[in-house]
Write a structure and sequence with these properties.
The structure holds 2 protein chains of 2 kinds. By secondary structure, chain A is α/β, with parallel strands linked by helices. Chain A contains 11 helices and 14 strands. Chain B has one domain. Classes of the chains: A alpha/beta, B mainly alpha. The structure holds adenosine-5'-triphosphate and magnesium ion.
């Protein structure tokens, strides 16, 4: 069995009391195997950041527990020293330069090394701006610095909360390539939260989709994507065609000449036969893979 | 350990504005005062004569700085510095970046250590600058600066100065504790500074409140409770050092209460420090870092 980096077991977290009470995380369970990019996908307010804070022992869950590398994380700081994290928007001391910010964080962790800081600054493309006070940094610049800060301690597990937030398109591409390299070339594990589907689709091996504090789907990104397919059928007359199939499958019109049918490849011959038997003209039948976006919208609606 | 000490140190001195107003002000302020006095001596005949006829002693000058540090105004600077140092992590949302790197307790207690060292260096440098600089001013005026340093004199004076330094340091630590506690509760520099100041000042009027309560309750013995607060005990340690007798304000005298020995007062202050630091650390340890 592959090594396990993160195990989250039935965590709950409530903020506030009485009527104002919010269930930020509601019985969430996850297992992240080491050596992959694991996506944590969910809409705003789904509980991604709260979960990450609980994993990092910044917040105590109301219930449940987190294990990292097989050991409970609570009050076990030695374990967290193998983790590097960027939580909810990078922050820094505004009166210090970018480089000084990294130095201070590295010293706080006891792994200060000027050479490593320089190479991390280069890695995130901030070397030429590192000696300016971060007060004048843009959101994207702070975000890059935050990713460098997460890597300071040479962590086995890198937790990144919406790492491409505020980056320009080129910066996003660089960041995604960097994240893949952390896993493919350096053998780390990356746990990454995002609400951007194409991002998860591009770089993640596995994904958990969460909504309202619960995991609603979990699995291999490619498998999840091919799990649900549909047929797009061009036929005439359209109302009759849909009426003929609707008792058996869900149909939804796509313009005046075609409709979608929730069915798989194996069912295509049977469908064509039915249509032909009813005297309907079939012009085209295509198999469509569901995009992660549709999948996500559907899954979050089901979960609601 | 050296590394987290340096990290805190660099954070504090990297905030130049704060360091200028709350740390550098001690040595630089003293130098400025000396400079102004020197100017007065150079430019005015009366100033020169005054200094020449009645030159201050270095003992007076060094003691003067400690009494400034131990005044309410002096305490304000320490409280403001401590509040900045503790609340900065909340203000800039930096705890989330720091806590996964070290046990919470290490990071928290480290701040006390660094603040203690900085405050001590600032106070001592201020006292030394005043002692040496005043000599230069008196020299400019053509006066005699004394008394001459002999082993016997040092034996008399050094313990007194050391006692002043001890009281100033302990008082600064108590103020730091109030600020730290206020920071973990309020997460804000302004709120923490204000509430810590309120406690620091409030502590000075505790005897008055106790006296008043005692009169209300027709039980003057209530005033005895003054003896358990850090403010009284710090005053008592200082009094023993300066005059060889304990601190006995009239209301205690009238109750026939003897001032405790300096060592007992020291113990009370240390117990207070332990309780206050423990309370702040305990609360911080179990706090959710949600911002
Ligand atoms: N400190 C807090 N106090 C009260 N409520 C909170 C707190 N932190 C989070 N919440 C609530 O918990 C829920 C989950 O928030 P969380 O920040 O975990 O979501 P998220 O998935 O990270 O969202 P986003 O994509 O916007 O970052 C939200 O409803 C939020 O309002
Ligand atoms: Mg978030």
């Amino acid at each position: 069995m592959a090594a396990v980096a993160i195990e989250v077991q039935g965590i709950r977290k409530q903020f506030g009391t009485g009527k104002r009470q919010i269930k930020a995380v509601d019985d969430l369970t996850l297992t992240v195997a080491a050596g992959q990019v694991y996506g944590f996908l969910g809409p705003n307010g789904a509980g991604k950041t709260t979960t990450i804070r609980i994993i990092l022992d910044l917040i105590r869950p109301t219930q449940g527990a987190v294990r990292l590398f097989g050991q409970p994380v609570r009050q076990n700081n030695r374990l967290l020293r193998r983790v590097g994290a960027l939580v909810e928007g990078a922050t820094c001391y505004p009166y210090l330069t970018g480089r000084k910010n990294l130095e201070v964080l590295a010293r706080s962790g006891g792994y200060f090394e000027p050479g490593r800081i320089q190479s991390l600054l280069e890695l995130v493309g901030m070397a030429d701006r590192a000696d300016r006070p971060t007060r004048g940094y843009s959101t994207g610049m702070k975000q890059r610095l935050g990713v460098a800060a997460a890597l300071l301690g040479d962590p086995d597990l890198v937790i990144l909360d919406e790492p491409t937030n505020g980056l320009d398109p080129a910066g996003m591409q660089d960041m995604r390539a960097l994240i893949r390299r952390l896993v493919d070339e350096q053998g780390r594990t990356v746990f990454l939260s995002s609400h951007m589907l194409n991002e998860v689709e591009q770089i993640c091996d596995r994904v958990a989709i969460i909504n309202r504090g619960r995991v609603i789907r979990e699995g291999d990104v490619k498998a999840l994507l091919t799990e649900k397919t549909r047929l797009r059928i061009e036929a005439e007359p359209l109302p009759a065609a849909m009426a003929c199939l609707q008792p058996h499958w869900t149909a939804r019109a796509d313009g005046d000449a075609a409709f979608y049918l929730d069915a798989g490849r194996e069912q295509a011959p049977q469908i064509v036969q039915r249509l032909a038997a009813s005297g309907i003209q079939v012009y085209q039948v295509t198999l469509q893979r569901q995009t992660l976006e549709e999948f996500f919208l559907q899954a979050t609606q089901e979960g609601a | 350990m050296v590394q987290i000490f340096r990290a805190e140190w660099e954070k504090i001195f990297g905030n130049r504005f704060m360091a200028a107003f709350l740390i550098w002000i001690y040595p630089v302020g003293t130098i400025t005062m000396l400079g102004l006095t020197a100017l007065a001596v150079l430019l005015s005949e009366t100033g020169r004569t005054a200094v020449r006829l009645q030159p201050p002693t270095w003992i007076e000058q060094m003691m003067l700085t400690w009494s400034i540090v131990n005044s309410e105004i002096g305490r304000l600077f320490v409280v403001a510095l401590a509040a900045q140092v503790f609340a900065a992590e909340y203000q800039h949302s930096m705890w989330k970046n720091l806590l996964p790197r070290r046990p919470r307790l290490h990071l928290f207690l480290n701040k006390f250590v660094v603040l203690g060292v900085i405050v001590l260096l600032a106070f001592v440098s201020m006292s030394l600058i005043a002692g040496v600089g005043s000599g230069l001013v008196v020299g400019l005026a053509g006066g005699q600066y004394g008394p001459a340093i002999t082993p016997a004199l040092l034996e008399d004076v050094l313990p007194v100065l050391a006692n002043e330094a001890l009281v100033a340091f302990l008082a600064a630590l108590v103020a730091t504790c109030y600020a730290a506690l206020a920071c973990v509760l309020t997460h804000s520099v302004v709120m923490a500074t204000l509430s810590a100041l309120l406690i620091t000042v409030g502590e000075q009027i505790i005897p008055v409140i106790l006296l008043w309560l005692g009169q209300l309750a027709n039980n003057p013995d209530l005033s005895r409770a003054t003896l358990i607060f850090p403010g009284y005990n710090l005053g008592n340690i200082a009094a023993w050092g300066r005059s060889g007798a304990g601190y006995q304000p009239p209301f205690l005298h009238s109750l026939g209460v003897e001032a405790p020995a300096a060592a007992d007062s020291l113990l009370v202050v240390i117990v207070w420090l332990a309780i206050l630091i423990g309370l702040a650390a305990w609360h911080f340890q179990r706090q959710d870092i949600a911002h």
